[in-house]
Amino acid sequence: MWVDAEAGPEATLELPPDAAYIATARIFGSALARHYGVPEGAIEDLKLALSEACAALVRGSGERMLLAATPLDGRLRYRVTGGALPGAGPAEDDTPSSLASVGLELIRALFEDAEITAGDQRASVSFSVPAG
Predict the structure, then answer these.
(1) What is the pTM of this model?
(2) Where are the alpha helices (DSSP H) in the chain?
């Protein structure tokens, strides 16, 4: 769905809280990136980040996820919103919360503008890629 946002047209996709839909998020995000002229190397990082963000939110709760992308100032800004994140601290084992933490740290390493907001009920992960 396209929505007029403050920054420009926003594309959104709502997904069930099921890991089976992570591939759908990757396809949606990469198709938008190609449409906006994002370099192919950045698209691979984008797909990895979308997978990790969705996986962390799926582990967190049964809330539906919302993936949004907005073009702004030569960049394409992605935001994934869903249920509460199971943990955002450093990973020490292979529990769901520590696995989510590893994925979130990977997103922070890939995108210097990454923002991760974890509330009691809802959480979001956002980052941007350069658009052509």
Answers:
(1) 0.82
(2) 22-35, 40-60, 96-110
Q: Give SS3 for 129.
A: strand
3-state SS of 2-21? EEECCCCEEEEEEECCCHHH
How many whole angstroms separate alpha carbon 71 and alpha carbon 9?
7
How far is 75 from 89, CA to CA, in rounded Å? 29
pLDDT of amino acid 61: 63
Structure tokens at 83: 């249920």
Amino acid, single-letter form, for residue 89? G
Which two tokens mark 88? 């955002």
Residue pLDDT, tens place only, 11-43: 999 999 888 999 999 999 999 999 999 999 999
Quickly tell me which residue has 């935001």 as its tokens. Answer: 79
